[in-house]
Specification:
Strand order of the largest sheet: 1-9-6-11-4-3-2
Number of helices: 8
Helix content: 25-40%
Largest sheet: 7 strands, antiparallel
CATH architecture: Sandwich
Oligomer: single chain
Number of strands: 11
Order of helices and strands: HEHEEHHEEHEEHEEEEHH
CATH superfamily: q2cbj1_9rhob like domain
Low-confidence stretches: none
Radius of gyration: 18 Å
Strand content: 15-25%
CATH topology: Jelly Rolls
Distance between the termini: 28 Å
Length: 264
């Protein structure tokens, strides 16, 4: 699916863009599914606890978490995770033993500008030891799949595999939503997908509120160091235990969710 050059570029730079990865019919199918999902969230007011609100105020959103929840689930979006243009690429980057992690929808806010500070996922201050960064190079992949043109993601290429510079540390501590040295705006056309390492320095910005529907998925690699879950422990997405949901998954997704149940 990917060339060695593409894989090496991803490992070195922390991201890889696949142009026109999603077909026109796929884009249209996913857009319609998202329109239905948003109607359920914003008009019917279901799934309210999983909406990503602007500034914590409950009058404007920039995303929806847990889009596989049964209250809003759309089969087309479940199927989208199995799209070869998504799953084949992830397998090429981190291997075939995979575990589901999250599926989220990113949208445009309607009333207020959307701007999230610079951060690394799981380390908002950006401070991650070098040995931890090294261990994460092929531990996971997350992606933004654009269904409309999207320039909301900002990254610092290569920052996923090293500790912060003094200049980066200064921005994070003193002006975390302003320009970062060597930043890059990830400019996607509808159908483009960017795959990236969540340890990369990144932020989100959509101040003009132009339409945005972007799939935001994350998949984790199962390694020799992964440990099965104690079955007595609770999970934070218990609806994924539903036998009907698991039984109706596309065949390619069943191992990802089997591993989600096994490794937590």
């Amino acid at each position: 699916m990917l060339t060695n050059s593409e894989i090496n570029s991803y490992l070195e730079n922390g991201y890889l863009i696949r142009r026109a990865a999603l077909s026109g019919p796929d884009i249209e199918t996913y857009r319609k599914a998202i329109d239905r999902l948003l109607h359920k969230c914003l008009i019917d007011r279901v799934h309210d606890g999983y909406l990503r609100y602007i500034d914590g105020e409950r009058d404007d959103i920039w995303g929806v978490n847990n889009v596989f929840h049964p209250s809003i689930r759309e089969d087309a979006l479940v199927d989208s995770l199995a799209n070869p243009q998504i799953l084949d690429v992830i397998e090429s980057l981190i291997g075939k033993r995979l575990r589901y992690h999250l599926c989220t929808l990113l949208v445009n806010s309607e009333k207020k500008p959307y701007h999230i500070n610079w951060h690394r996922d799981a380390a908002s201050d950006g401070e991650v030891p070098q040995e931890v960064l090294n261990s994460r190079l092929r531990s996971h992949v997350q992606l933004n799949g654009a269904l409309y043109d999207d320039d909301s993601l900002y990254i610092v290429p290569g920052s996923h595999c090293r500790e912060l510079t003094d200049a980066e540390r200064s921005v994070l501590r003193e002006k975390p939503n302003e320009e970062m040295p060597h930043q890059l705006v990830v400019e996607l056309k509808a159908g483009d997908i960017v795959f990236y390492n969540s340890s990369i320095l990144h932020k989100g910005k959509n101040t003009n509120r132009k339409i945005r529907q972007t799939l935001h998925y994350a998949i984790v690699a199962i390694t020799s160091e992964s440990h099965p879950l104690n079955p007595d422990n609770p999970t934070d997405q218990e609806w994924l235990n539903d036998p009907e949901f698991l039984g109706n998954l596309p065949d390619r997704l069943k191992p990802l969710f089997d591993n989600w149940l096994k490794y937590r």
